[in-house]
Structures are given as structure tokens and as C-alpha cells.
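Journal club prep — side note

Before the paper discussion, L.F. wants everyone to see what a predicted structure for a comparable chain looks like in C-alpha cell form. Sequence:
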Amino acid sequence: MLNRVWLLFFIVAAISILVQLLAGNTEVLSDSVTALFASAKLAADISLGLIGVLALWMGLMQVGEKAGVVGLFARLFEPLLSRLMPEVPRGHVAYGSISMNLTANILGLDNAATPLGIKAMHDLQSLNPIKTVATNAQILFLVLNTSSVTLVPVTVFLYRAQQGAEHPADVFLPILLATSASTLVGLLVVAIIQKIPLFNSVILAYTGLVMGSLMALVAYLLTLSANAIGSMSMVLGNGILLLLIFSFILAAGYRKVAVFDEFVEGAKQGFNQAITLIPYLIAMLLAIAVLRASGALEYVLQMLATLISGLGWDTRFIDAMPTALMKPFSGSGARAMMLETMDHHGVDSFAGRLAAILQGSTETTFYVLAVYFGSVGIRNGRHALSCGLTADVAGIAAAIGVCYWFYG
């Protein structure tokens, strides 16, 4: 799958460059070459930047596992995860790292979620009989990460505040609804392909508990101002991170674990993983960069606008679609598109709000796929990409529908 997608990116980019050359735009050549070399540098910068973070969290996870704290997380979520990932044996260490990754994602702890996700992928890889082909559990785990469930998207609120939004957090509920739709569709598609029975008493019990807690949290957050939500999220996020770190170390010390030695041993693994990622990131970012520089995404937008106009439908959402099309490929590119839309149409315009909702409701699918699968050397992702992109499409469609519902 990855081989075909990678080749397709270059074929589409080549066609787009040729079309632009025939139209007299010779600058596309220099733009594409610049993008190619910039992407190689970006991949190296990202991987090198991950060295410290991965070493930190791999070291802490090693200590946390010895201390039994990670095992506590595993016991909380294992009844649910064991039914979603039946090939992972009960009591396996992967349940702990998966639980911690999903918790970090939900709470918006991005600096912890990625290294914890890589650790979880490594734990799942230990059960993989064919090391270059993704297992069902690895695919489900990746799709849950690409569907981007974050309870409080503080960064989106921050960008809206910087652009002068009257109520920066008024997109909170639309984002939550859109990202929930993305996650549910991603889970449902994977469950259908992998024949996972979702109508199980344990799964339904966990779903009811999560939905009830979510509704209670939403009801509470809607009573707060944007500044109060931002402050609460910052305190909660930092507090949880410090609580985890201290609980790992202090509990390990109580159990007389060689804390320093275990941390160093885990940190070594993090260092090696960061270096391993470089070629996979270069390959993926290279293809994305040339696709973007070739102008192919702009042609897609033009065709979409023509189609929607021809059908006689409302076209206001088209102005925010650059963010939607860019998000699966590049987080920074989507952020730039969102800010440009806010600046051009107004932060509280329909397009400005929709761009913010799109930014908060989907994830950089290709980047996540390259990082997670690349960290364990998987080359055949099977149905991971198609399921991840299906979740993205669901999130985009939900974002558009919710925006018309709230602001149309």
C-alpha cells in the first residue's frame, strides 16, 4: 500500500507540474526543487528533535513499568482493549503503553503522546509474526491515533484569540463533535474489516461511561470563558505530566528499583528509535512536499468548487477546504492554511470558523503512519491508510455539517 501511495504522489505531482509548465508557470520547477530539499532537512530536524523527547519518555516508561504504574493503566483499560485487539494476550505490556498513549492524546498532551505511541507500537511489534506487515492490533491503534480525539484543543483557541476572535472557544463543541465522528467512523471501519464484534457488553459499558463523562465535561466547559478553559487545560495538562513522572520515579524507589539504571536503559532505546525514523520520515515528507509544491492540491480545490457550483449547492465551505486537504499531509501546512483563511475571510466568518474546526478535528495521517510504522520497520500497512483516510473524510464531513448547524 505505501509503495503504491508513494508512487502515486509523484505521478500526480509530475502531471501537475507538466500542466503548469504548459500554462507558462516555470516557477513551479524551482518551487518543487526547493520543497524536495526542504523536506529532507525537515525530516532530519524532526527526528533529531525527537531524540530528547523519545529518550525522556522511553526512560520514564521503563521506570514506570518496573514500578507497576504502567500496569495500573493497563488494568483499567485492558477489558476494553482486549476485545478490540483479541490477538494481544491478556496481561501483555502493550496494554499499558496503549492506554497511556490514548490518555495523553485525549488530554492533548502532544509532547507525551507521540513517544508513548511509538513505545506502544514497539510493544505490539513484539507479537508480530511478520515484522514488515502491520498486524490488526497495530492498524487499530494507528487509526485511533489518526482520528485525533482531543478534549480541549487549546492551540486552536489560541490561534483564534491571536486573530482577534470575539469568543475564541466558541468552536469547542463543534470540534468535539467532528473529532468524535472521525474516531467513531475510524473504529467502525476497522471493526468491519477485522470482524471485531462491537456490540459487546464490556465495550458498550465502557462506551457509556466515556460518553457520560464526556457530556458532563462538555456541560461544565461550556460554562467557562475561553481564558478559563485555556488556564484549566494548561494546569491540568502540566499537573498530569508531573504527576505521572513523579509517580513513576517515587513508586519505583519505593519498590527498590534501580531507578537511574532503568531510566538510562530505556533512554537508549528512545535514542535508537529516533535515528531509525529518519529514512521513513524523509520518504514520506519528500512525497508530500513535491505534491504540495506542484499545485496538485489547488487543482483539486478548483475541481471541487466547480462541481459544487454546478450542483447548485452552497459553496461557502470551499474557502476553508485548503485546511482540510492539507491536514492529512502536513500539520504545519494545515495550520498555515487555517491562519490564511482566518486572515482573508475573518476569524469569525463561516470559513474562518470552519477552518478552525477542521484543524482541530482531524490529524496528520501520513505523518503518523510514517512515524509509527517507520519506528518498527513496517512496510506493508495493509488497510491502515484507507481506514485512517476514511476517518479523516468522516471528520471533514462532520466538521462541515456541524459548522452549518451552528453558524449556517
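L.F.'s comment for the group: The mean pLDDT is 86. Keep this in mind when we get to the figures.
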